[in-house]
């Protein structure tokens, strides 16, 4: 009788443990865009980690769509288990390409990001709707010895153009540490985008001066966004100024 009772108790404990066991959370891979770097995700990373998500903030090379997507693809390859790919700005085009061929990528999140159709470039989409002022805020191009040019935002114009809702001192640090993008990367045409196969979520601000809000809304609708969050007055770096809203949307996509 004692042995039977003990066996019942053990079985109950095992089944109870199985009932409450939670599946491992997906890894969130964050891909920054032009004129930013991985630290632009710090506020979002802090929230995601607190909520138990593994996070990788990839260092996007910003050299060309093919090169950058291959790098992010390699990062995804190194991760066991499901992945949520998140892209900011030009990083949206990168994740749209990098996700292809990866069964472990379950969803895409576009943060003030481009979601091009096949044959489109970010330069095409940036000029599709009025309101963008990036071209007038760029510094003189830096000529590269191997050919082509690197583009930066003029540091004196960075706060107003890129991060108007971020404190001035913080924006000045971001301006000094901005990662340049090649002109080639901005004119590269997209291949077949992963958002046609994977569910996507979008978040952007109405105060974005790099990509007009109308363009961002157009891309979200075209991609069949599961949910689009529009943050009133937020700048192009909505993940810096509104990390909670961005993190919440990423966590929704992760479910």
From TrEMBL:
Keywords: Hydrolase, Signal
Pfam families: Abhydrolase_6
GO-annotated molecular function: hydrolase activity
Domain AB hydrolase-1: 28-248
Residues spanning the signal sequence: 1-21
PANTHER family to which the protein is assigned, alphabetical: AB HYDROLASE-1 DOMAIN-CONTAINING PROTEIN-RELATED, ESTERASE_LIPASE_THIOESTERASE DOMAIN-CONTAINING PROTEIN
Descriptive protein name: Alpha/beta hydrolase
Upper taxonomic lineage: Bacteria, Pseudomonadati, Pseudomonadota, Alphaproteobacteria, Hyphomicrobiales
